[in-house]
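Page header: ASSEMBLY MODEL / three components / 441 residues total.
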Amino acid sequence: MNDSKWDDRTIAAASSSVIILGALLYYWVGEGQSMLELLELAYGSVKFFNNPLVF
Amino acid sequence: MINELIYDFAIWLDDSAWSTLLHESYYMYNWVESIHVLTLVVCLGMLFMIDLRMLGYALPNVPASNIARRLNMPMLIGFAIMFITGILLFYAVPVRTSQSVWFRVKMILLVACAVNAYLFHRRMNESVSSWDHDTKAPDRIRFGAIFSLGFWSLVVICGRLVAYDWFDCEYTDSDNFSQLLSGCIAGQERF
Amino acid sequence: MLSNLLSNYRTVAGLAFVVLAVVLVEFFEVRASIYPSLLPFFEWLKYSSWIGYLGITYGSVYATIQAGHLISMAIIGGTVLVTDLRLLGVLLKDIPSETITKGTHQCFKYSLMVAIATGIFCAAGVADKVYYMPVFWIKMLALLTGSGFMFFIKQPLLNSRPHHEIDPWTLRILAAASIFIWFTVAATGRWIGFS
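Prediction written out in full:
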């Protein structure tokens, strides 16, 4: 490992970027999944042109 | 006369099945609206970068013409998405929107923005070689940038105010001045 | 040895501390125990503070300041997109990324300040509602993360040396994370209005 290239700031930047990207991906995929589940629950199929909050 | 035409057109749109479907769909309507608002970041974000460059507040070390030319494309892409989603939002709620004072003012402001943008680019292309590397653009160009910032800010404010029903034809008396501006039709039954 | 390592890797140590703190907060359920005690503050914000009063009483003032929030968000977005798309090699490729990074940061800082000030006003008017919304707290978390990331990680790295000396993949994921976090701040903010 090249010390001058992989210094404190670079390691912090790379690792925090990976953590942020991972956490955000986890959040948005989770949001997408719960939306699909709600639609499935409401209609038995995924219909975006409907209001799952009104049964 | 023109108000009757607008009203009839809005009723015609309102009677189409897709308009109701879009209006009543929780996800689709909110997504369209979210895309409309979030592409504001792309369109106005780029435009304001150009304006702030002319005023000397952003990217002072980059040639002004370079910023203006290169950020034009992402700005126009953002504008195209905003325009399409804007039409869809209008289509979902046509009668109320066409009779909204704020919406009408917003449309006039958009025309003002377009005229300003045209004049801004013409003036810039005429003289840019002489001030391209200056931190601040000449007065004429700076005024254009200030007008652009001001008009677009008013567009955003009007867009936000469309959501409020203070001046809706449905809730105002027929002798109210706002009815004239909103183009309310005497005895109209749909809102 | 340890003190030497700590002084050489101060940012990494700080980051590790923050990550550890988040894990501990979750593990010991600190969040759940603090949450109820925040309700009085949110109720005060809406019903007793002057910004809450102004927001509830004058709808036009509230809407205008909300539009100001959107405009400052547009400037934040503009600076973030220009800087990060340059780092990703999409925009303004013939201009050095150092020049772009330096030239946009001032605007970013001021518009973030305006966005936070107008955002507090917007939240105060509906404080009793947002308190119960998970999406509001996600937005606050994203805002805190985004700001910390910008001021303590991204800017110090980008200002430390010419960008060609920085590992190119680090620059790319740095830019991608930055765009994604600020997109999340904006998108969750929009969703507050729908919930």
